[in-house]
Specification:
- The chain is of the alpha+beta class and 72 residues long.
- The protein has helices spanning 12-22, 50-64, and strands spanning 2-8, 28-34, 39-44, 69-71.
- A four-stranded antiparallel sheet has the order 2-3-1-4.
- A hairpin with a 4-residue loop joins strand 2 and strand 3.
- The longest helix has 15 residues, at 50-64.
- The protein starts with a strand and ends with a strand.
């Protein structure tokens, strides 16, 4: 399943860091982050707990870009 989340990020480079971090999280099949639209699209691996995965995505993104926001 793929879901879209509103985000708040300062620059395109920061968005790329968030995308790279999100794609390292277990349960994420693919994540794309758009600075222009301020959205993150996440495709979840089959059988994954979307809520738990997104909690880990937020943590991973905060490690690389501490002032980013992901609105769940």
């Amino acid at each position: 399943m793929k879901k879209s989340y509103k985000i708040e990020v300062d620059c395109a480079n920061c968005a790329q860091k968030m995308e790279d971090a999100a794609n390292t999280v277990a349960g994420v099949a693919n994540a794309t982050v758009s600075f222009m639209t301020q959205k993150m699209k996440v495709e979840f691996a089959d059988g994954s707990d979307e809520k738990a995965v997104m909690e880990n995505v937020v943590k991973a993104c905060k490690r690389v870009e501490d002032d980013c926001e992901i609105f769940l």
